[in-house]
Amino acid sequence: MRAPGTTATSLLYSGTGPVVSALGDDVLPGPAHVPAGPSLGRQVVPAHVAHEFAGDAQSPAAARGFAKSALAELLSEPVPPTLRDDVELVVSELVTNAVRAGSPTVTVQVSIEDAAILLRVADEARGWPEERHAGIHDTSGRGLPLVSALSSSWGVRIVEHGKVVWATLALPA
Fold first, then answer.
1. What is the pLDDT of residues 102-115, one digit of tens each?
2. CB 144 within 8 A of CB 97
3. Residue 95 three-state SS
4. Which of 10, 37, 55, 87 fits as disulfide partner to 170, beta carbons 3.0 to 4.6 Å?
5. What is the dihedral of CA 155, 33, 171, 144, to 10 degrees?
6. 66: buried, middle or exposed (CB in 10 Å: 19+, 13-18, 0-12)?
7. Using the 8-state DSSP alphabet, how is residue 17 labeled?
8. What ranges in the chain are assigned the alpha helix state H?
9. Is the pLDDT of residue 23 over 60?
């Protein structure tokens, strides 16, 4: 957490390009507001589960398994397989980015808020993730475009010891 009176920088992506803003010290890492999705035919209370992983090559696979288990724990009804696959892919891409950036640990949080799945990946790596367009022969550079395509919005918050990259995926009605 930041010291009182300090600010964090936030970058939100939602189809039209990035919007940068400074946030006060009372805002938790993640989006300032999770866009509301369609109403659910079931009661869902805001809840989350989190797990810390070592910053190594096994973490993306372990984080995918954690995300799948977290959805089952947080929701009373099964998640459609395509949405579950999207959640696993987004988590995997964000954790891979954190590991490749050199973070010694990576924390994944899965939350259910406002009829949406909110994914947060916190790392201790320096730098700011940037979406880029990979060439046909490039072996990397497709992760954030995939995150952007699969999520309704995503963004980055710089925190005291690194950053939190978050993404929202709407739950079905």
1. 999 999 999 998 88
2. yes
3. helix
4. 37
5. 0
6. buried
7. -
8. 59-74, 81-100, 143-150
9. no
d(CA 1, CA 160): 6
The answer to whether residues 80 and 95 touch, using CB atoms and an 8 Å cutoff, is no
- For residue 49, pLDDT over 50 is answered with yes
Which residue carries 């890492």 as its tokens?
29
* 66 or 13, greater pLDDT: 66
Q: Which helix (H) or strand (E) holds 52?
A: strand 47-54
* Contact between 51 and 106 (Cβ < 8 Å): no
Integer-rounded Cα Rg, in Å, for the chain is 15
Count other Cβ atoms within 10 Å, centred on residue 40: 14
User: Across residues 146-172, what is the average pLDDT?
Assistant: 91
Cα(92)–Cα(87) distance, integer angstroms:
8
Output the pTM of the full model. Answer: 0.74
Three-class secondary structure of residue 106 per DSSP: strand
Alpha carbon of residue 16 to chain centroid: 19
Q: Scan for tokens 């009176």, then name that residue.
A: 5
Q: How far apart (Å, rounded) are the C-alpha atoms in residues 102 and 22? A: 26
Count CB atoms within 10 A of the CB of residue 101: 18
